[in-house]
Amino acid sequence: MNLSFLGLMPLEVSGLLGIFTAPLVHGSLEHIFNNTFAILILASFLYYGYPKSWWKVLTLVWILSGVGVWLFARQANHIGASGVTHGLFFFLFVASIFRRDKSSVAIMMIAFLLYGGMTMTIFPREEGISFEYHFFGALAGVIAAFIWRNSDPKPVLKRYEWEESPSDDDIDIGEEWQVQVEDPTGSENKPRLH
Predict the structure, then answer these.
(1) How far apart are the first and last CA of the chain?
(2) What is the model's pTM?
(3) Among 90, 97, 174, 186, which has the highest number of CB atoms less than 10 A from its own CB?
(4) Alpha carbon of 101 to those of 32, 50, 107, 158, 180: distances in Å?
(5) Residues 6 or more apart from 76 whose CB is under 8 A from it?
(6) What's the average model confidence in pLDDT over 1-22?
(7) What's the pLDDT score for residue 21?
(8) Pick from 130, 117, 114: which is nearest to 26 by CA?
(9) Which of 137, 135, 79, 87 is nearest to 111 (CA)?
(10) CA distance 45 to 92
(11) Nearest Cα to Cα of residue 9 among 164, 130, 189
(12) How far, in Å, CA of 61 to CA of 19, rounded?
């Protein structure tokens, strides 16, 4: 079936529908396989790492990447979910930089190992690939990370008993850490640490 009418045509009224439908239309089986696999992995990371804000991030990335392409992209029929995949990846990347907790950094390291090449595909490389969708998806992911970086609670750090209460064996020596000690050899006394 020819579903090109569901694609996104920049600055055309008929192309406004594509903001919502273009990520669902793909040009080939390889195209749909690559995007579907990336969305499954990155959306799983998003759902696991950010359970309260995952749906807001996904919605914002989906719509904002489409709006950016509709406003600023070259005249072509833009299709595919690449904008969504790039948005999810860049959200995970930027949110982990802000949060710096073990969970978000671990998620980002795995995502970067699998899809780190997305950082280069936001620039024009091949004529038939919509780098605009990649770029505006990444921009939407960064914006989502700024907005919802703290909406999910950070994992609770496990504290052990010995970390919280001082033991009876601890001695507070205060300012008296430097003491003069007599040298039995008769040489000059020097300050020593004990």
Answers:
(1) 83
(2) 0.77
(3) 90
(4) 33, 12, 10, 13, 46
(5) 9, 10, 130
(6) 89
(7) 94
(8) 130
(9) 87
(10) 8
(11) 130
(12) 11
Which residues, 6+ apart, have CB-to-CB distance to 49 below 8 Å?
92, 103, 104, 107, 152
Distances, alpha carbon 154 to alpha carbons 8, 58, 100, in Å? 38, 20, 9
Q: What DSSP string runs through the chain? A: ---GGGSB-TT-GGGGGHHHHGGG--SSHHHHHHHHHHHHHHHHHHHHH-TTTHHHHHHHHHHHHHHHHHHHS-SS-B-SSHHHHHHHHHHHHHHHHHH--HHHHHHHHHHHHHHGGGGTTTS---TTS-HHHHHHHHHHHHHHHHHHTTSSPPPPPP--HHHHS--TT----TTTTEEE---TT-----EEE-
Distance CA 40, CA 58 (A): 12
How far is the C-alpha of 165 from the C-alpha of 190, rounded, in Å?
Answer: 36
